[in-house]
């Protein structure tokens, strides 16, 4: 209970610092949510500022926004006046979670077997080839991978749609674009861990007793070799969340990343802050779950 309360307190402080920093940085950026090429009449501008509390001083705006957030209200959207930020987040979050979850499952489902295969053949030509391909996957950014996938599968081959949302065919290319770098990271981490684990003294002793390679792998090597991959899940999920901003823009997906980009470009303060708070809460929750999973798999962490 003491550990849980300490974790919750750290999470609240982290989210408060994140929200505060984002709030004041947004206000410090040039321009405003209602600045257009053709300025509105002064009375209309004053009414809009009063409606969205932009006529208050900066500390008053901050305290009013904190009070609303404490009551679960993320405020109205400046860019989408017919929707609140709560409604936009509720619509976008399942889309981003579906894309990110499928991308991470694909990365684990391909990266772990490739890493095991390469780690058991460390130093061989297959190991070098797989790690070379993985290095290419890491080095190519998502804003290059996503248009290339559109060009190949949507324009040239015409197998999949170039963008949009609503059918399973719209999910394939965004998930692949999000998963490719993570497949490469997962394969490299699993390969290094498996190679180190397979050369451990206790496995050499078990091998000398006549245990089969399959038994050594499944019963003795796999669990300790997976520990670095479990530790990598936190940055992997964060990478998926941050990478979704690029991928959702390219494929026109109505997810959290797209709303964040549009909100930042249009100075939609409440929308950006709502997305930041939601993503920050997800990252904190992910870290807590991954730490618990690591402690469950590694007795040394439980004793610590």
Automatic annotation (TrEMBL):
It comes from the Bacteria. The keyword Membrane applies. The chain crosses the membrane at residues 97-117, 129-156, 168-187, 225-251, 271-293. InterPro entries: MetI-like (IPR000515), MetI-like_sf (IPR035906). Residues 93-294 form the ABC transmembrane type-1 domain. Its main location: membrane. It is a multi-pass membrane protein. The keyword Cytoplasm does not apply. It holds the Pfam family BPD_transp_1. It is found in: Cell membrane. Keywords: Cell membrane, Membrane, Transmembrane, Transmembrane helix, Transport. PANTHER family: INNER MEMBRANE ABC TRANSPORTER, OLIGOPEPTIDE TRANSPORT SYSTEM PERMEASE PROTEIN OPPB. Belongs to the binding-protein-dependent transport system permease family. This is ABC transporter permease subunit. It comes from Aquilutibacter rugosus.
């Amino acid at each position: 209970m003491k550990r849980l309360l300490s974790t919750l307190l750290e999470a609240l402080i982290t989210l408060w610092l994140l929200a505060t920093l984002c709030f004041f940085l947004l206000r410090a950026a040039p321009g405003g949510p209602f600045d257009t090429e053709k300025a509105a009449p002064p009375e209309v501008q004053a009414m809009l500022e009063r409606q969205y509390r932009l006529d208050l001083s900066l500390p008053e705006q901050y305290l009013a926004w904190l009070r609303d957030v404490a009551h679960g209200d993320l405020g109205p959207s400046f860019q989408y006046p017919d929707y609140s930020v709560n409604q936009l987040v509720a619509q976008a979050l399942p889309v981003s979670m579906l894309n990110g979850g499928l991308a991470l499952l694909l990365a684990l489902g391909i990266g772990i077997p490739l890493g095991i295969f390469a780690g058991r053949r460390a130093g061989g030509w297959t190991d070098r080839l797989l790690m070379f391909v993985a290095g290419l996957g890491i080095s190519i950014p998502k804003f290059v991978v996503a248009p290339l996938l559109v060009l190949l599968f949507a324009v040239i081959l015409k197998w999949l749609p170039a963008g949009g949302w609503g059918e399973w065919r719209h999910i394939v290319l965004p998930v692949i674009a999000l998963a490719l770098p993570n497949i490469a990271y997962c394969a490299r981490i699993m390969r290094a861990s498996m190679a180190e684990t397979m050369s451990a003294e206790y496995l050499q002793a078990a091998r000398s007793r006549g245990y089969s390679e399959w038994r050594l792998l499944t019963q003795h090597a796999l669990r300790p070799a997976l520990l670095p991959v479990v530790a990598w899940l936190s940055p992997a999920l964060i990478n998926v969340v941050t990478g979704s901003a690029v991928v959702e823009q390219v494929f026109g997906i109505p997810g959290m990343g797209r709303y964040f980009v549009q909100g930042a470009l249009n100075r939609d303060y409440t929308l950006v802050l709502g997305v930041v708070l939601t993503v920050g809460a997800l990252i904190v929750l992910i870290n807590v779950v991954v730490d618990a999973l690591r402690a469950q798999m590694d007795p040394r962490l439980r004793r610590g």
